[in-house]
Amino acid sequence: MSDTYGLIRYAQTKHLAFTEVAEGLEDGKFHFSAKDNLCADGFQARAGSAVLDGYSPPFDATCIGRMKGSGGQLVGKTTMDEFGFGTFSTNSAHGVPLNPFDRERSCGGSSGGAGAAACLIPGHIALGVSTGGSISGPASFCGVVGLTPTYGRVSRYGLIDYGNSLDKVGLLSRSASLVARHFRTMAGPDPKDPTSCAQPALAGKGRMPSSLAVPREALQNLDPSVRSSFQEALGKLKGMGMEVHEVSMGSLRFALPAYYILATSEASTNLARYCGMRFGRREEKFDQHFNDFFTGVRSEGFGDEAKRRILLGTFCRMVGFRSRYYLKSLAVRQLLIEEYRKVFRDHDAVVTPTMPFVSPRFEEIGRMKPLEMYGADVLTVPPNLTGMPHISVPCAYVAGLPVGMQMVADHWKELDLLEAASAWENVFEYRFPEVSL
Amino acid sequence: MKIGLEMHFQLPTRSKLFCSCPTAPAEPNHNVCPVCLGYPGSRPALNRKALEAGLSIARFLDCKIEERVWFSRKTYFYPDLPKNFQITQYESPLGTDGHFDLNGRRIGIWRVHLEEDPGRIKRVGRSGEEIAFVDYNRSGIPLVEIVTAPDLTSPEEARALIDQLVTELRSLCGLEAQDEQTVRVDANLSVGEERVEVKNVQGLRNLEKALRFEANRQSKLLAAGKKVVRETRRFDEERKVTTSAREKETEEDYGYIGEPDLGEFRIGEMARNLELKETPLARAKRLVASFGIGEATAKQLVLTSHSLTDLFEELCLHVPPERAVSWTTGPISGNWAVLQDQAKWPDIVRIVKDDSEGLINDTEAKRRILSLAGVQQEAAVEGGDGLGKLISDFIDEHPEVLADYRKNPKAANTVIGHVMKESKGRYSSREVVEGVRKELEKRV
Ligand SMILES: [Zn+2]
Which of A241, A249, B238, B257 sees the fewest Cβ atoms within 10 Å? Predict the structure, then answer.
């Protein structure tokens, strides 16, 4: 046990995976962490933003309450991009997490701290949140299993919103079996989140996928090493007895713009509440007009990426642009759902690499333009936009760095993905960095 | 002149629209929780009772009701709005395209929708050194917004519409009694071509004043050959004038998006299955149609009491409607406190029937009714004089009432109320009203 606590402290100090950790471990409990945008009594919940400094929510998120209720101890809150706005966890006001395989590289984002914690601490389960790929991405870069459930499967009560119609609470860990066990704990309807109340009950066991679809469009613009690793992985899947077919999914290319429009439109309204009045960061300059007061708090409290997305989202909702962008994006989402459904008529899952490249160095990230960064989400955004469950598992190592493979299934079929991920662990051995305390 | 109204009424639910906080009045910021304070991580869950109340209003107004509805976010920054967006309905109201019959005239109802109330700001201290306090007890209180077509033709008619609507909605779904004072109205008014919106007027009286002022202002501008500017104005309650609000916002400027946390609601089935109570004015209309009684009489009956009207309908099964009217608005309503006991109704019906069939005369019938009410016959027979003395004594003691009466005939109600109370039901309301009117007119 003390070893585990040592590893937690190590992950916090050497890899900046945690913003806060518990003072010690309780005996007889399993240990889990939560991304810092999940509210928990006794911890701050700052969602990677300085505007929330000092916010200690007086309640537990439903998913955290359920984990505690089944014998878990919340051991810490993990670092993240501000409000989930990022692909590399570099947009964080509370420390940028460093990759477990190479501290010069990113953990992925926005659940970067969760990815690092899941990788560095054996048996650890890290709750992450995905809006456009924030579980798959870190799982890929940190070489762990990351499950993003169907939208509405796990209650969002207690989650600090990014894009409410896209946000999903999921899990990261070293093994699919651990993910499966705790996924069952967290799933299920919750009256406090009406969007969780329409879900079908979880089956006893999943069905092993037997036919996989690989969309041709998803294989463009991949780093060559990722492409060849993925082709090799497909070979292993065939070796497991699965059929692999190439398909065409022409609407995938609309997913990225539609996603950024919907996510930022919603985000720009969600972030309106941060004005220094009721919680989080506040200033005592009460003699100002409220508009100036709000502007002051928001200018100081939000990071650049948050400001960029507020502007983008507000623009998309404006008169004259709303139907051109926001309403059209809603239509694209429907189109994409239909396209996936068509593929699922003949296939059990869609499989692609998770990220187009292995984890980049921070100096490379520093040179990327916002649009290049958004482009890194090209493979993770489609299932997120359509609310379909997906799982990322390590499928290769390139120069010591993990490569991720992502499988997407139809709504509510998480257990099928977990079956496949478990079977995958029998044919491919995961590696984790050696840690000496 | 064309006037259209957007009225906001509080729906009578015990808890708020999206959380379980009570709606009852309390110390400032006592009825609050993470949801209605907009704490990060909290989210709304719709109060079914509010949805039902809203739907019964939409159905009562004969609106078209879609199968599915959703909510929207209206984003604007203001300290009383915890999330800096209000959850309301924009593209998808509960009902559209209905109507309300106002004294025989059909007033179009454009839409009925639900929304949450913001908090309240209270300013204290001298001007220039004011401190503003925010009370979030009202944040999340369920409101129904009802929007009329610009079919109203005068401030008086606008007032009458709200007056009658409140009466109806109160009995339909239990709107609070003080709604005439608390109703919040945005009105648009045009005398000529251009319309002006007067925003955020609280209470019926202010509304009528605001509309009168605005009608006057526009007429004068037009008479002087000037143009009315299309704009939003606010009513200054103290100065009783409207002033330009210098706002350019149109509804589209609020950047509406769907409220993703609530999803869609299938309301078609729910709306169809609602049992609507018969409202007073609808009942009055039915009484006129089925019994051929006068509209004024019918209204008097239904507005006096629901159960008195029940007795009236019961009597109509046995005697001609005009007899039923004269008994229910006469001696029966005069002693309603006692006679509303339904155990006494069979006896009442028999007495009125016997009288109507000529088995007993009117005096005997009245004596029996009064004795059923526990009133001594002597007191009733002494009749006129005792009543006259009660009335004139009260007016002698309260000369201010007479002064008031000269300005406003409604002051007679003070005397009527007093005499009704003092005489404990010895006289029918008609006798008292006539007596008071006569005495006051004599003195004026
Ligand atoms: Zn509340």
Answer: B238
Choose the catalytic residue: A33, A35, A136, A359.
A35
CA distance B19 to chain A (A): 9
Strands (E), A91-134: 125-130
Please indicate whether, in this complex, the C-beta atoms of A39 and B40 are within 8 angstroms of each other. Answer: yes
Structural domain total, chain B = 2
Domain annotation covers residue B155: yes
Note if the pTM is more than 0.90. Answer: no
- Domains of chain A in start order, with CATH, are 2-250+333-425 (3.90.1300.10)
Q: Position A390: which residue type?
A: H
* Same domain flag for B92 and B169: yes
Interface touch A317/B41, C-beta < 8 Å: no
- Chain B partners within 8 Å of A266 (Cβ): 257, 260
pLDDT per position as a tens digit, B217-242: 999 999 999 999 989 999 988 889 99
Residue type (1 letter), B333:
S
Rg value, chain B, Cα = 26
- CB count, 10 Å around CB of A29? 15
> B258 and B303 share a domain?
no
Specify if B188 maps to a domain.
no
Residue A194 with chain B: CB contacts under 8 Å: 44-46, 261-263
Nearest CA of chain A to the CA of B260: how many Å? 5
Q: Known catalytic residue: A134?
A: yes
Which of B224, B239, B273 marks a domain boundary? B273
Residues of chain B found within 8 Å of residue A268, distances taken between Cβ atoms: 75, 255
Question: In terms of domains, do B287 and B268 share one?
Answer: no
Q: Which residue of B has its CA nearest to A321?
A: B255
Write out pLDDT tens, residues B351-391.
999 999 988 888 889 989 999 988 765 544 444 567 888 88
Interchain contact, B255 vs A269, CB within 8 Å: yes
How would you label A119-151 residue by residue, b for 16+ Cβ within 10 Å and e otherwise?
bbbeebbbbbbbbbbbbbbbbbbbbbbbbbbbb
Residues B434, B408, single domain; the answer is yes
Query: Which candidate, A154, A345, A337, A357, places its Cα nearest to that of A247?
Result: A345
Residues A97 and A79 sit within 8 Å (Cβ to Cβ): yes
Strands B196-202 vs B184-190: parallel, antiparallel or unpaired: antiparallel
In a domain, B218, yes or no: no
Active site residue A436: no
